[in-house]
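Onboarding guide, step 5: your first structure request.
Type a short instruction followed by the sequence, for example:

Predict the 3D structure of this protein.
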Amino acid sequence: MTSRLDGRYPPGVQADRDDPGASVVAVMVVEDQASFGDAISVALETRSDIRCVANVATAEDAVAHARATCPDVVLLDVALPGASGIDIIPDLRDACPDVRVIVLTANTSGQMLLDAVEAGADAFLPKEHRFSDIIDTIRDDASASADPRAMASVLHRARHLGDPEVDGLSEELTEREYQILLLLADGDSVKEIARRLGISVHTCRGHVRALLVKLDAHSQLAAVVHAARAGLLPNLRAGGG
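The system replies with structure tokens like these:
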């Protein structure tokens, strides 16, 4: 089990360097391009509320480090030597059930992203996006995807495929829940939705939690994809791709 951090940072750091009482998000970077992975890891360490607990290049090391450190978030490349990052998402979740998996990829095809969501990914971001988008998504302040075209692509694919098994998810949504579902599908974050609807973030998160239950989804992204496959998103503002 190897990490490019070489033990510089202890696993499972629980306290902010400036505020011992602050909560710190433990992040593992899984990226086979050393320069890109190292750049992300170093940049993460400039944030007082984030710690990079591992920086690895292979699927095998990713699973091993997940079992050893149980990070809060995994930034996961798809194209890894010997295995697809998508293939190890179930293993990462088995090692750490509450982990949030954020897929970073140069491939934004609808089918690949749909496969990632169905494997258990919580969010996806194209690699060329701003580092601030990665930070916001790690902090759970952003939408499931900062790229409207990527979101439209995966939802277009999901609607095209459909799924007879989602008939059991047809429990009627409230008007507010459906309103929030459409805004999530358009790529808005919970904070943006709350501001647009004139409700508190706490109230908005409550509606989102209800959506996850009704759509049998583990994340906002999965809820939107499940809704698309169920035919609940007929009129998205973003066009299909």
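Each response can be followed by summary notes, for example: The beta strands are 25-30, 50-56, 73-77, 79-80, 83-84, 100-105, 123-126.
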